[in-house]
């Protein structure tokens, strides 16, 4: 792995009396794409929420670029370069595409660079340029996902965390999202991808972490995980 950008050790979190994460460990290297896979309810979204400061860690440590960021407020985590594209996208439906994208940059003050980044996103996702003045509630699911990802990138992050990239989207749409993500990675961003479709997750990332009941069950290069009989049987629907 390259130099660690994100380093999570022994992370414990939950809701009220219910503990969900039981000592999670995870690393994402600089420029690396890592996927988190696992059954429904394994704790993947809970992990992303804890990393972005929406949920408090009860113990354990999160380091980002060598700094302890455990339990910093969400805004501060965002300003350090971690952005979370939540499941279900959570766009501001009545607002148009461009205004939604600009909300992603609300902590930034570099106006000229924001404008350049906006243009870059509209080039990367031409369909968003076409629909730039449309309310996002009128977009298709795939277009909304593009908008949510582009809005995330408008915060100028170093680490992009996406929760459920492909859920509910047609394979063709997922392909074009994948191509855009590759381009974004090429620009130097790191990716932590939560993805229920394990084959898609393994295609888009070079290292994978299989989460089971709030713990890491197995992790390694996705090329190895993809041919691991346990992973194939338990998570890929292959005999
Ligand atoms: N707000 C919440 N309050 C209580 N339990 C929750 C809440 N959100 C999720 N959970 C529970 O936490 C567990 C892990 O959920 P989640 O992290 O969403 O899993 P995954 O994303 O891997 O499907 C599940 O049992 C889920 O029911
Ligand atoms: Mg989830």
TrEMBL record:
<keyword id="KW-0813">Transport</keyword>
<comment type="function">
    <text>Involved in beta-(1--&gt;2)glucan export. Transmembrane domains (TMD) form a pore in the inner membrane and the ATP-binding domain (NBD) is responsible for energy generation.</text>
</comment>
<dbReference type="InterPro" id="IPR052156">
    <property type="entry name" value="BCAA_Transport_ATP-bd_LivF"/>
</dbReference>
<protein>
    <submittedName>
        <fullName>ABC transporter ATP-binding protein</fullName>
    </submittedName>
</protein>
<comment type="similarity">
    <text>Belongs to the ABC transporter superfamily.</text>
</comment>
<dbReference type="GO" id="GO:0015658">
    <property type="term" value="F:branched-chain amino acid transmembrane transporter activity"/>
</dbReference>
<dbReference type="InterPro" id="IPR003593">
    <property type="entry name" value="AAA+_ATPase"/>
</dbReference>
<dbReference type="GO" id="GO:0016887">
    <property type="term" value="F:ATP hydrolysis activity"/>
</dbReference>
<feature type="domain" description="ABC transporter">
    <location>
        <begin position="6"/>
        <end position="238"/>
    </location>
</feature>
<dbReference type="GO" id="GO:0005524">
    <property type="term" value="F:ATP binding"/>
</dbReference>
<dbReference type="InterPro" id="IPR027417">
    <property type="entry name" value="P-loop_NTPase"/>
</dbReference>
<keyword id="KW-0067">ATP-binding</keyword>
<keyword id="KW-0029">Amino-acid transport</keyword>
<dbReference type="InterPro" id="IPR003439">
    <property type="entry name" value="ABC_transporter-like_ATP-bd"/>
</dbReference>
<keyword id="KW-0547">Nucleotide-binding</keyword>
<dbReference type="Pfam" id="PF00005">
    <property type="entry name" value="ABC_tran"/>
</dbReference>
<dbReference type="GO" id="GO:0015807">
    <property type="term" value="P:L-amino acid transport"/>
</dbReference>
């Amino acid at each position: 792995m390259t130099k660690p950008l994100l380093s999570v050790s022994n992370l414990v979190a939950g809701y009220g009396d219910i503990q969900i994460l039981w000592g999670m460990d995870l690393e994402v290297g600089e420029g690396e794409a890592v996927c988190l896979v696992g059954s429904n309810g394994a704790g993947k979204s809970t992990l992303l929420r804890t990393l972005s400061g929406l949920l408090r860690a009860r113990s354990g440590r999160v380091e980002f670029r060598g700094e302890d960021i455990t339990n910093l407020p969400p805004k501060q985590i965002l300003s350090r370069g971690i952005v979370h594209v939540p499941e279900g996208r959570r766009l501001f439906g009545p607002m148009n595409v461009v205004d939604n994208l600009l909300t992603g940059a609300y902590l930034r003050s570099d106006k000229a660079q924001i404008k350049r980044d906006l243009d870059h996103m509209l080039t990367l996702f031409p369909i968003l340029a076409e629909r730039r003045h449309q309310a996002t509630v009128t977009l298709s699911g795939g277009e909304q996902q593009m908008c949510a990802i582009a809005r995330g990138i408008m915060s100028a992050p170093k680490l992009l965390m996406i929760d459920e990239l492909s859920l509910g989207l047609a394979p063709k749409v997922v392909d074009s999202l994948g191509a855009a993500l590759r381009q974004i990675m090429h620009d130097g961003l790191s990716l932590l991808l939560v993805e229920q479709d394990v084959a898609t997750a393994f295609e888009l990332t070079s290292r994978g972490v299989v989460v089971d009941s709030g713990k890491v069950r197995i992790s390694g290069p996705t090329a190895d995980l993809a041919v691991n009989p346990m992973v194939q049987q338990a998570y890929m629907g292959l005999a």
